[in-house]
Amino acid sequence: MDAELRELYQQVILDHNKSPRNYRAMEHHNHDAEGYNPLCGDKIRIYLYIEDERIKDISFQGSGCAISKASASIMSSILKGKTVEEAEQFFEKFHNLITGRLSDDPAREDLGKLAVFEGVKEFPARVKCASLAWHTMLSALKEEKEIVSTEHE
Fold it and tell me: Which tens digits make up the pLDDT trace of 23-77?
């Protein structure tokens, strides 16, 4: 990761950690899921309001490290208004990025601000922090009731 991207990464992470977007319990939701990362102690709950196969609203609550909270914040901003199918595609692209399987793929450009998380692929424990919100969102989409754990990835 070059110095410019590292600086951007730090700025984006700190901004979204300090002022997370969509950080609230959603009173009127029709999908939700809980996630837990026992290695870092991150806990998250994702709320979705889906209508006509589109994410009309998304929010989250929880506690965790800066990477976990920033990932959830950016995810919620990007997925609001997207279709369920688009959300699933974003999950795949993001997961491939942070696990090192998307580096030279043109789909990388579609990720916008999420591209700053590319550096976490160098730190396996941080991959779990960055992906927790995403796995939890996917579980909410599928209406799974089991708590998502990063130890089952």
Answer: 999 999 999 999 999 988 999 999 999 999 999 999 999 999 999 999 999 999 9
For the domain spanning 3-152, the CATH number is 3.90.1010.10
Report the candidate in 153, 143, 148, 146 with the shortest Cα–Cα distance to residue 50. Answer: 143
Query: Hey, what are 10's tokens?
Result: 């730090």
How big is the CA angle at 48 (ends 42 and 53), to the nearest 5 degrees? 135
Residue type, 131: S
Give which of 67, 114, 79 is closest to 93, Cα–Cα.
114
Residue spans per domain, the chain: 3-152
User: DSSP string spanning 81-100?
Assistant: T-BHHHHHHHHHHHHHHHTT
Q: Between the CA atoms of 87, 90, 91 and 97, what dihedral angle is there, to the nearest 10 degrees?
A: -170
Q: pTM for the whole thing?
A: 0.91
The answer to whether 90 and 79 have CB atoms below 8 angstroms apart is yes
Tokens of residue 41, six digits:
């102690």
Distance between first and last Cα of the chain: 25
What is the pLDDT confidence band of residue 94, given thresholds at 50, 70 and 90? very high
The pLDDT of 131-146, averaged and rounded, is: 96
